[in-house]
Specification:
39% of the residues lie in helices and 13% in strands. The chain is α/β, with parallel strands linked by helices. The protein folds into two domains: 100 residues, Conserved hypothetical protein from pyrococcus furiosus pfu- 392566-001, ParB domain; 90 residues, no CATH class. A five-stranded mixed sheet has the order 1-5-3-4-2. The termini are far apart.
Length: 202
């Protein structure tokens, strides 16, 4: 096993081309992918700190761990990537284990500490998903550039029990017709504003 800087053109995503090794099961959505790209742009040295794990396959190398990073580097026009090269005779069972273990998080975040001591905006930019307040809005309108200055995006870090309370209150407010507003088309936001107005007005 050795560290090498390899040409991007020689690196291939794992699509199941190695006998006995299933294709890479990881997927990444557009928003997350853009955050990954930005992360690499902001801190490119992280690529050296966490190399791609690859294994030789003929004249190319199959990426065992780091397939999403490879895609991001390709989109940024990278010509080479820092890699940890496994031995060509690495058992396929080991390759399968590396594929999954590379993306398993054994620890847990202390969400209270994150809320009190870290900047929520930075954490979001770095790709951290917050638990809690997540009420999907179906068909939420896209804002034009002219509209954006009139709106604010707010994020809340809630305990699971608090989140359930907020979700139930928003649902109840929407059922009572509070999802409509002449200043906003987002039903969840209107319902939450209605709840807050009721509280302030007694």
């Amino acid at each position: 096993m050795q560290s090498k800087s390899l040409s991007i053109s020689k690196l291939k995503s794992n699509i199941g081309q190695i006998d006995g090794l299933p294709a890479n099961p990881r997927v990444i959505r557009d928003e997350k992918f853009q955050k990954l790209v930005k992360s690499i742009q902001d801190d490119p040295e992280m690529l050296d700190l966490r190399e791609l794990i690859v294994v030789p396959s003929g004249k190319t190398f199959v990426v065992i761990a780091g397939n999403m990073r490879l895609r991001a580097m390709e989109s940024l026009g990278y010509k080479e990537a820092p890699c940890k090269v496994l031995d060509a005779d690495t058992p396929v069972e080991k390759l399968k284990a590396y594929t999954i273990k590379d993306n398993v998080g054994f620890g847990e975040h202390d969400w209270e500490q994150l809320a009190n001591e870290w900047d929520a905006g930075e954490l979001s930019d770095w790709g951290l998903d917050f638990p809690g307040f997540d009420v999907p809005e179906v068909g939420a309108p896209a804002l034009s550039d002219a509209e954006k200055p009139e709106f604010q995006q707010m994020a809340f870090l809630l305990h699971d029990r608090q989140a359930e309370t907020v979700k139930a209150a928003v649902d109840k407010a929407k059922q009572s017709g509070a999802s409509e507003s002449d200043v906003n088309e987002n039903g969840n936001a209107n319902a939450l504003a209605y709840i807050c107005a009721c509280f302030l007005n007694g």
